Amino acid sequence: MKLSNIFRGDKTIWVLFLLFTIVSLVEVYSAIGLEAYTKYDTKTPTDLFLRHMAVVAATWVVVVVFSRINYRYFSRFAILAFWASIVLLAVTLMMGGRWLSIPVVKQFQPSEVAKIALVLFLARMMALKKEQVGELNVFLQMLIYIALVAALVLPQNFSTAALIGLSCYLMMLFGGVNRRWWWRLFLVAIVAVVAGLAITYHRYDRSLYADSQPRTEQQFLERSSTWGHRVHSWINPNDTLLTQENMAKMAVARGGVFGKGPGNTVHARLMTQAHNDFIYAIILEELGLLGGIGVFLLYSFLYFRCIRIAWRCRGRFGALTVAGLGTMIYLQALANMSVAVGVLPVTGQTLPFISYGGTAYLFLGCGLGIIQSVAADTEAADAQPEPLPEPQPAESQQE
């Protein structure tokens, strides 16, 4: 069987995915040590690396399988997937955590399912209502669905809620909603987020003496203290503390332009999240500024290919799905890289297809597989010869 029959879709994206996984295997192997000894007493770094390799291999299988499914089938299951993700998010929220424990998979993040399900749901909605997508009632309906998912994710994961909201809101712009309403609400949302972060920053100081507050006040402070701490540390950095953020900055500075070489990290030995949230800092330490720019360009090129596929796709559902999924992957990558270099406060977002693998890695593979399915369908449609023009009646030919 030819490779082209196995790896359907955009060949450039397959190459980019291969490069991502190579970088992932090298950097995770380099950075996984402290996690093995602090969190898993009975596991060695090799054990965790082999687990990561298994997840990467499984993700390749997932991408190949999804790329071979006609993307129109995903539209049929979009409604079921969306409401199933709502139920999972609600259950997770009631349990007071970010993960669900299920057989085989110890930790399962429903928010990763919700990301893809919401994109498919909105793409289906805008495809079916393409004539009414510019109307206010359709605009408000989509906002309600986005707000519902974001509200269920927000209490335990602000950054993921923001990522989902922003990605899907940009997707609405691609779908042709009224630009005047879109921009007005966008500005209102920016003001609301800034005000919310300011309030959280202020309340963080109060959380330091939460024991003196009533119980209901303590519960609120406990939920917002993490956000407040991250914003407080970002605005008022203390370079004397041995924090993840400061060690990431030191790793970036140590890397210089050319880096210290793969496997020669020092700061990953001291960071509990070097293989996950701060893996881009380790990339900069080992591969230098040039390597960091190279990884950034890989994500940028991936997003460019997604937009190109969306532009060429003849089906509205496929085009909007690729635009939404591509935007979500790119924004997540930008968020992770921005945290590593100190441009944003800590968000907890992983670096797509590079950070240590789990359910998040697998579901990103589902999204990439759907993108490749649309790309394969678009290439097949473009390869078909143009139909011959209809023969004209003799009278019209004489005229």
Describe this entry's structure for a reader.
There is one protein chain. This protein is mostly helical. The chain has one domain (3-177, 237-380). 71% of the residues lie in helices and 0% in strands. The protein has helices spanning 3-6, 11-31, 33-38, 45-67, 72-76, 78-95, 110-128, 136-153, 158-174, 179-207, 215-235, 244-255, 279-312, 316-340, 359-383, 394-398. α7 packs antiparallel against α8 (136-153) and α9 (158-174) runs antiparallel to α14 (316-340). The longest helix has 34 residues, at 279-312. The termini are far apart. The model is unreliable at 208-221 and 395-399 (pLDDT under 50).
Termini separation: 54 Å
Main sheet, how many strands, which sense, barrel? none
- The secondary structure category is mainly alpha
State the shape: globular
Outline the low-pLDDT stretches. 208-221, 395-399
Give the SSE string: HHHHHHHHHHHHHHHH
Oligomer state of the chains in this structure: single chain
Task: Name the beta content range.
Answer: under 5%
Main attributes of the structure:
16 helices, 399 residues, 71% helix, mainly alpha, disordered C terminus
Question: Summary?
Answer:
This protein has 399 residues and is an all-alpha fold. The chain contains 16 helices and no strands.
What is the fold's blueprint, element by element?
Layout: H1 3-6, H2 11-31, H3 33-38, H4 45-67, H5 72-76, H6 78-95, H7 110-128, H8 136-153, H9 158-174, H10 179-207, H11 215-235, H12 244-255, H13 279-312, H14 316-340, H15 359-383, H16 394-398
Helix pairs in contact: 2-4, 2-13, 4-15, 6-7, 6-8, 7-8, 7-9, 7-14, 8-9, 9-14, 10-11, 12-13, 13-14, 13-15, 14-15
